[in-house]
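User: My collaborator sent over this chain with a note saying "see what the structure looks like." That's all I know about it. Can you take a look?
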Amino acid sequence: MTTHTPDVAVVGAGTSGCYAAATIAREGYDVVVVERKSEEEAGHIACGDALKGADAFPEAIPKSKIESAFTNTGVDHGRFEIPQEDTVLDIPIPGELAVIDRWEYGRLIIKGAKEAGAEFHYDTVVQDVVQEADGSVTGVRATRKGQPVEYEADIVIDGAGALSLLQDKVEFDDATFDTNVSYSQFCSAYREVVHVQEPVEWDDALVFKPTKRAAGYLWYFPRTETEINAGLGFQMTEQPMKLVEDLKQDLRDRPEFKGARVEDKLGAALPTRRPYDSAVAPGFIAVGDAAGLVNPTTGGGIAGAAYSGKYAGEQAIQAIEQGDVSEAALWEYNQQVMDHFGSRYAALDVYNILSTAVDVDDLMGLLAALPGEKLAEALYEGSTQMSMLLKAQLAIKSFGYWRNILQFYRTKQRADELMAHYEDYPSNPNDFGMWRSRRDSIMEKVYETTGADPKY
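Assistant: Without extra context I'll predict from the sequence alone. Here is the result:
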């Protein structure tokens, strides 16, 4: 068996893995990125290609290094189609937007991490973790091009994506690491790249549309005015082939896609849940999708993944320099994630929970009644405020949905309460149990308010 001994082993060459590796390598530490795909295929993953926060990337791989993958920087709003109400909502989306060529972007972040000093091992499939009797993770075992290989490291960073195999292999009995994870908290996504004959009229918008079933939504994101990322997301509990047929039927029904050429069909899993309560254990940090760090209402996760990689890399460096890779020594990573975007994502998950308990037609009617800018705040910020005049106008427009609005308002109060609690995330693992107990009490009120079945 071949053995490698980097300071840090990163599993997965996605956004979070590459930014973690670049952050560590820039400080002169040895880091190996273990990637199951070949060098030619690395960076090629299923993605909606829409990027919110295109103006802000960690300096370990600066925006200038990846900007050539931004194929459409003219998008500035969402276009939400609601067939049940014969309505199209234009929703302003805060922050800088772009649609990217995800494969080219994947190549560029790998190149950026290499230039920073990271080493990449392709065709390497991780099969197990190495863990000491005290619970510390000290490496991974893999097969590289058919040959067994082991990576001994001070810290392992798990960037292996949703439902990561590594987390099935680590024993977390004595750690705070979140194991309250189930298949139903994730969604499947499928997308095709579609080339149309004439420029689409909505090349400045991200187009969303609910599926015929309550399980998910369709999207049409314009990479260019004639190259469209067309896809759908749906809960793992649904039958994928029926929902893929919904996408294909919608493509057939849209005149702008007549005679279109389809290529590059891919699917993947992604989290539609709150961030992991804790994503650290002795010698182990989970990043990006592997830690549930995705906006649960939109599925957007690129910018969050980049910053989680940065925070994990910085924490790994500090722990190695101090000679302490314990859970307490890595804990600040959790705090940084929650402070930056984790609290907001946790609040947004409350609206996902609500959506499982309301009739889809009622939900679409309510969305059609909401002002676009307020809907954008709810989708992206986790909270929104309305003036008395706006409330009065909404009351008139939404006649017939008042019961739903009352439920939505009460749900918003729960989401605000939850966000405030996450903003008070503990500064050390000793206070974690009390914090989580209080969070669970708030979640009980969420389920009571929404009428939804418990998600966690």
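A starting point for your reply to your collaborator: Residues 69 and 109 are 10 Å apart (CA to CA).
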